[in-house]
Amino acid sequence: MQYSVGVEYALHCLVYLIDVPSTESVGIKDLAEFQGLSETFLSKVFGKLSKAGIVSSVPGVKGGYRLSKSPEDISFWDVVEAVEGPKPIFQCKNIKDNGYLYREGCCSAPSFCTINLVMLSAEEKMRDDLRSKTLSWLNEELDRVLPKQIRENTRKYFSKSSI
Question: What is the DSSP string of 8-30?
Answer without folding.
Answer: HHHHHHHHHHTTS-TT--B-HHH
